[in-house]
Amino acid sequence: MRVLFSTLFLALGFTAWSQSSFQIKGTLKLSKDTAAKVYLNYSSAGKRVEDSAVVKNGTYQFNGSVEEPILVCLRVTYTPGADGKMKAISFKKDMAAVYIENAPIKVVSTDSFSNISVTGSKSHKAYMALQAQLKPITSAQESLSKAYSDLYQKKDEAGMKALEAQFDSLDIESKKVYKSYIQANPKSPVALYAVRQFAGWDINSDEVDPVLALLPASAKATPSGKELMERVEIARKTGVGKMAMEFTQNDTAGVPVSLSSFKGKYVLIDFWASWCGPCRQENPNVVKAYQRFNEKGFTILGVSLDQPNAKEKWLKAIHDDQLYWTQVSDLKFWQNAVAVQYGIQAIPQNFLIDPTGKIVAKNLRGEALVEKLEELLK
User: Fold this and answer.
1) CA geometry: angle at 121 spanning 34 and 42, to 5°?
2) Model-level pTM greater than 0.90?
3) 248-376 fold
4) pLDDT per residue as tens digits for the range 162-211
5) pLDDT tens digits, one per residue of 69-116
6) How far apart are CA 241 and CA 244, in angstroms?
7) Could you tell me which residues come within 8 angstroms of residue 57 by beta carbon, excluding any fewer than 6 positions away?
């Protein structure tokens, strides 16, 4: 997607506003801080779009075009203080989410940058209506996140684990809200956004397909719609009961390794990376399962999403975490060929494959992996 800047319109002699484009006019009514720049960024169809605007006399402006209504992030920076130091950016006060479309849009920030009012965007109005329905849940999630952060600082692992069930419960409640919204508003400009949130990063196609079917063809034909359809199609191929897709990737010595070479064993395809904190925290549980069941027909095939030119970090993490099973990677970060093939949007993730190559479980964490293997390898 390409941003068309105002200079292009001026050069072509356009004087009237075209509805194939957007224009964001921002006004800052900040009592204390002097804003310097506002940054705009968003993602669409796997591409990242970024722009910036200088703040002049408390105003800023963005011009461009989008192929569909889309949620963008606006972020402000400030001029240095009297001591010459830059003010630290607050995620809560200095960032704002705005749903934009090809229309003239006005954004007014009062007291803090994030305290905004938006006019001219029908999609933002719909987005705020959806957020109002989610408010009780998001408030509870914020409180729970604060409590979790406090426990993390105290290294209270038992306390953190106790909160996980509450997080899961809130996630279920939010999915109910998204589903209800889609059913009542299938033609809303943010209905596709709601479906994406309902689907999450670990898509259950049996749950998502009926909801996705409610959307009009025009929504499915947008870049985001096509991307979601592709992800759901992959999910249909990687659900429990499906045969795992074959792949081949090089191991740490550069030797090609195929998934089919492990046929006859239970195999855990483990997606991770040396830079992934939650992965490294989960690794002791994976090691425990490997040590306990390796002699009973179980093994692991690690697929690393490490970055280009980071082979040494990958190898060091394997050594430090004692991951003494087959490891493969093409060192292409999120574009790892196997990760793309399996629709990996977040890590850690794993797939447990039976001796015939069928997926029998997904995303087993902690004791759940051991319990499942005990069930299968009695």
Assistant:
1) 65
2) no
3) Glutaredoxin (3.40.30)
4) 888 888 899 999 999 999 999 999 999 999 999 999 999 889 999 999 99
5) 999 999 999 998 777 787 888 888 999 999 999 999 999 999 999 999
6) 9
7) none
Rounded Cα distance, 77 and 333, in Å:
30
Q: Classify residue 202 as exposed, middle or buried by CB count within 10 Å of its CB (0-12, 13-18, 19+).
A: middle
Q: Which residues contact 309 (CB under 8 A, 6 or more apart)?
A: 331
Domain 6-120 CATH assignment equals 2.60.40.1120:
yes
- In angstroms, the CA 267 to CA 373 distance is 10
First-residue to last-residue Cα distance in the chain? 54
Three-state SS at 246: coil
Query: Where along the chain do its domains lie?
Result: 6-120, 124-237, 248-376
The region, left, alpha or beta by phi > 0 then psi within -120 to 50, assigned to residue 267 is beta
For residue 322, the 8-state DSSP code is: T
For residue 89, give the 3-state DSSP assignment.
coil
Measured CA to CA, the distance from residue 6 to residue 28 in angstroms comes to 21
Torsion of CA 238, 244, 249, 251, to 10 degrees: 110
Instruction: Report the SS3 class of residue 268.
Output: strand
186's tokens: 């299938």
